[in-house]
Amino acid sequence: MSKIEEVRAQMVAAMKNKDKERKETLSMLLAALKNKAIDKRADLTEAEENEVVKKEIKQTRETMELAPADREDIKEECRKRLAVLEEFAPEEMSEEQIRAEINAVLSALGITEPSGKDKGKVMKELMPRVKGRADGALVNRLVGELLK
């Protein structure tokens, strides 16, 4: 079952349960998935579907962070939206898994004593391995810690 079908089924269930906030979030996600498919002029792959979900999560987090401190209503709405969106997000890699990948890349490149100069080579090799499964900022931070 594609994400579009899954989101549509969840949206119908939310409408039946009269859960307006969940229905609106799912409707927004469904629209984003359909728009991406229309732009591509073909069905989306699982990776592309996950990319759309992650983009929606990122935008919602940015909205929550940029909301004025006195607008708790906006922040609460974003929290609820994130809870729904994260149901459809792919599982993220843990820090331990990312560290294991970093160590695998270091050994593959033959780097025994990593230094700051090696960061570019490591990142170039590492990012395709973790793309879509790990947050780029977290990966960058972990590589930076390891290469000091």
UniProtKB/TrEMBL annotation:
<dbReference type="InterPro" id="IPR042184">
    <property type="entry name" value="YqeY/Aim41_N"/>
</dbReference>
<keyword id="KW-0175">Coiled coil</keyword>
<protein>
    <submittedName>
        <fullName>GatB/YqeY domain-containing protein</fullName>
    </submittedName>
</protein>
<dbReference type="InterPro" id="IPR023168">
    <property type="entry name" value="GatB_Yqey_C_2"/>
</dbReference>
<dbReference type="InterPro" id="IPR003789">
    <property type="entry name" value="Asn/Gln_tRNA_amidoTrase-B-like"/>
</dbReference>
<dbReference type="Pfam" id="PF09424">
    <property type="entry name" value="YqeY"/>
</dbReference>
<dbReference type="GO" id="GO:0016884">
    <property type="term" value="F:carbon-nitrogen ligase activity, with glutamine as amido-N-donor"/>
</dbReference>
<feature type="coiled-coil region">
    <location>
        <begin position="4"/>
        <end position="50"/>
    </location>
</feature>
<dbReference type="InterPro" id="IPR019004">
    <property type="entry name" value="YqeY/Aim41"/>
</dbReference>
